[in-house]
Amino acid sequence: MAQTREIPTVRLGDRALMPVVGFGTWRLSGREAYEAVRAALDLGYRHIDTATMYGNEAEIGRAVRDSGLDRGEVFITTKLPQGNAGREAETIERSLRELGTDCVDLWLVHWPPGPGALVRTWRELLAARDRGLARTVGVSNHSIAQIDEITRATGEAPAVNQIPWSPPRHSASLLDRHRERGIVVEGYSPLKGTDLDDPVLAEIAERHGVTPAQVVLRWHLLHDIVVIPKSARPDRIAANFDLFGFALDEEEMAQIDAMAG
Ligand code: NAP
What we know:
The protein is an alpha/beta fold. Helix content is 40%, strand content 17%.
């Protein structure tokens, strides 16, 4: 039976609440994807990140159904592949079929399509949302200039920009630029992008009795960055979700911020 636990959420306009810790599923497929997502849901995750490109939407849909949770309790994100620009309706309808749901919680443009297609693609995502196929829509791997272009053209900013984030990539000014526009930053590859053997992280982790990976994930959350770590291992899936029993002080945050190259 899945356990219930309050996970902090971030508001996406007036349309949805997104749990600030989600489960990443890139490179998980077949039985491994199904089992990892079942484990994550059993441990209390209520946010799953997938993409058409990952080829695991069917396994994720099955894991959510088999978890015994109501569909409304799990926040599901999927993404439009760059090469499917121009075939948006067909792509989301297929994702919904695979996931076995009528509506995803967040649909993202995975990578910006060619310059001529940027605005047209964004209009198609808004249209899918207005048809009720996605509760909210956003982008991934978009620059601020690209976000400003699609916002100017449609009057609607993306709810989220999913971009790589980790201590070595930290940029306070890039965070501010999203924040000024009311866009939630969702960081990907938080662990892969970090040297988990870094002595700064090791020392902070030891002080709090946690792992360097947990320190890195907590640091993101304290910067109001949504995290979606991936693991195929139940022990790590559990540890990556166990982030609220400690906090980092200002000095520790500054030390980790200073890892930016
Ligand atoms: P990640 O979550 O930072 O790292 C995953 C790697 O770290 C795996 O090799 C995993 O191995 C290992 N790991 C997991 N937990 C660990 C821990 N506690 N200690 C040590 N190692 C640990 O990287 P990611 O998968 O690239 O990013 C997360 C998610 O973001 C993806 O799964 C995907 O959903 C999304 N994403 C989006 C984009 C995009 O373009 N929008 C691009 C990349 C990723 P094990 O599985 O063996 O534990």
